[in-house]
Amino acid sequence: MRGRKKRRRQIRAPQSQAPTLRQLGGSNLKESEKDIELNYVLQGTPLKGLNLRVRNAWYRNDFIAQASHRDDNELRVNVDYTWKLW
Question: How far apart (Å, rounded) are the C-alpha atoms in residues 86 and 71?
C-alpha cells in the first residue's frame, strides 16, 4: 500500500545506573520502553499530502512509588498537512 509506513522501537535498561539510584529504590533497577508508530500519507485525492500518524508508547520501570518516573501508556494521534506558500 503506497503512502504507508510503520516503525517499532524497543529500549531496555536492565540495570539502570542513575546517579540517584538509592533515591529510586536501590540497585539493579529495570526500565523499558516500547513504541509503535503507524503513518499514512493520502495520495491522489484533493487532500494529497495529508499525513495521519498514530503512535503508542509503553514505559515500565521498577522504581519506588515516590519516583517521578512512573509506568506510563501514551497514545498520540497527529494530523499533518503542508501548504506551499510560494
Answer: 46
Domain spans of the chain?
4-80
Cα distance between residue 16 and residue 61, in whole Å: 10
What would the grid cell of residue 26 be? 536501590
Backbone angles phi, psi at 13, to 5 degrees: -130, 90
Could you report the per-residue pLDDT of 24-66, keeping only the tens digit for each?
566 667 788 899 999 998 888 888 888 999 999 998 887 777 7
Q: How crowded is residue 86: how many other Cβ atoms within 10 Å of its Cβ?
A: 2
Take residue 81 and report the three cell numbers written for it: 498537512
- pLDDT computed for residue 21 by the predictor: 57
Cell of 65: 512509588
